[in-house]
Amino acid sequence: MTQPATIRRASRPRPPLPEHLRAALSLAANGVPVLPLRRGKVPFGNCPACAGNACGGRPNMKTPGPCHCPGICHAWAAATTDPDVITSRAWARAWRQAVCVGYHPGGAGLTVVDLDDADAIAWAYTALPATRTVPTTRGEHWIYRGAMPSRNAVRPGVDIKSMMAYARYLGPGTGLMAELPDTVRALAVKGLSPVGPTAVGVPARAGSGECPHRTPTYLARGIAMAEQHITEASSAIHATVYRTFLAVLSRHGRCGCLTDSHIARLFTAAQAKGETARHCMEAWANARTRLGL
Known about the structure:
The protein is of the alpha+beta class. It contains 9 helices and 10 strands. The strands form 2 sheets. Strands 4, 5, 6, 7, 8 and 10 form a 6-stranded mixed β-sheet that branches. The protein has a 4-stranded antiparallel β-sheet with strand order 2-1-3-9. Strand 5 and strand 6 (140-145) form a beta hairpin. Helix 6 (216-231) packs antiparallel against helix 7, helix 6 runs parallel beside helix 8 (260-272) and helix 7 (237-252) crosses helix 9 (277-291). The protein is globular, with a radius of gyration of 24 Å. The N and C termini lie far apart (107 Å).
């Protein structure tokens, strides 16, 4: 008796990945943390267990904190480069509903200057160094290499998106990516001039004559050492920031060589350690008062 022929069922072809998911995986492979964005171009809401940050939240990308939710919670903090998470069942529904891909610029070591209108773009061409640009619905994204604190409305039509923020991915853009300039860092420091380096109003010491610290190398080395001192602090951050500001002002505060860009670098280093812009301003003011400036 002949055996009946074995019937082989043709395997069903896998459905193609959604367009946004393909783009997200490509970005993640290049070290850019991604997340899906829903209608309105905003992140998906927290799951019920994480609503109102009841789980403790995710304070930053390096130390996720107590939350181990597999869903897309906590907005920018959900961004990841892990392909297993990006393609997980918990994220699958979100990708089907997503209208675009978001990413965490600071997590990729980037800063996005979001220019929202023609006036803001015109300002950028006169005030900022050329870098990679990406057209948006109403303006442009200027992307720089380097992370910094984020801040909205730093000037009319201009937002800074970097650490603890998300931006829309709108394509690779054009142009070579430049290093993050001090001019952009200064924009995020409340109370400093948003148009670029200008002399800080510190009175010169009577009879001191020409500033002895105007040698660029001398001043640059001093600011770099101050930044490093703040960055390497592992405890007593408040006190370290104040003492560092005091040391910088005692050396350079009376000769008028400090500019907004120098102060912005110190404030940025302090904010990267968790200090607020308000505390930075208070510590700077207290140091000036102690020195009689």
